[in-house]
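Trying the structure run again after the queue cleared.
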Amino acid sequence: MSKTVLLLIVAGAAWWLLRKGGALDDPEDDPNYEEADMLDRASGLLDDVTDFMGMGMTQTEQNNASAFLWMIRINEGTADNNGYSTLVGGGQFDSFADHPRVLVALPRLGIKSSAAGAYQILRRTWDEVAKGLGLPDFSPQSQDRAAVKLIRQRGALGDVRAGRFGAAVEKCRKEWASLPGAGYGQHKNNLAYLQSAYESAGYCRMMVTGGAVAAVVVFVLARKAAGVVGEAVGAINPFNTDNIINQGVTSVYQTVTGSTGTIGTDIYDATHGGALDMTSKNNAAYSSVSAVGEWITGEKGWNLGGAIYDWTH
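Done. C-alpha cells:
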C-alpha cells in the first residue's frame, strides 16, 4: 500500500470521526471545545451496556453518579432551581422541546457558545448524543441522561460509579471547561472544592434517606408507645367502667350477691326505682311506717302523713 493511499485512509478516518463528533458542523460554536477522541470513545463503549438508570447499577454506584452530576452543576453554576433552563452567560430559555440552539457571544473569551442546560451542553454535542440515545426532548431527565453519556464517552463512567473522583474529573476535564486542567481559559474551581461538593451531595442524600427511615421508625414506635400508655391509663382510670379495679370489685360483688349488675347499677336501680326515694309512697321507710300504723290503729290505709294532717287540722 502506497503512502498516499495510507494518508488518504487516515485523513478519511479523521474526517469521519470529526463529522461524527460534529466538530465540522458548526465551526463558529465554541471552537475551543475538544470532542472525545477515539481512545476515549472506545473506552466508553465498555460502559454502553449499562444505562445510568438501568439494571446492573448498585445503589452505591447510582449515588456516586448522581453526586458527580450534582458536582458538575455546581461547577457550571447551574445548581439552582433554574439550572436546567440556563443558557451560557446566565440567560434563560423557555421550552424543553429541544436544545435552545442560541448562540451567545462571550466577549471576554472571544468566542460564541450555544452551551445550555444544567450541564451546559453545546448544540452540536447535544445533536449527537440525543440521536444516539433517542432522546425526545431537552427535559431535565434527558439532560441527565445526556450528561452520563458524555461522561461515558470520556471513558470516565467506570471511575464515577466506583467513586474514583480524581480520575473521573481528569478524564472529563475536556468535556466541561470549568473543571481543573481543562485548558480552555475559562474560570475553573479547584479539585478540593469540587470534591467537597461531590461528597456533600452523597452525604446529604444519605442523610435524607436515613432521616426519612428514622422518622418512620420513630413514628411507628411512638404510635405503639401511645397505644400501650393509653391502655395502661384506661386500665386504672376510675371514670372508665372497664378499669381493672372496677372489674375486680364487680366480679367479687356478683359472686357474693348473685347479682348480674354492678354495684353502681344496682345502687342506681335502688335509688331510682322508689325503694329509697323519700318523695315516693313506695319507698321502704314509708311502707314500713304505714304498716305499723295500720296494725296499731286498726285503720286500713292508715299513713303517717294523713294522721299528722288530721291532728294539725
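The CA atoms of residues 271 and 295 lie 28 Å apart. Worth checking whether this holds up in the mutant runs.
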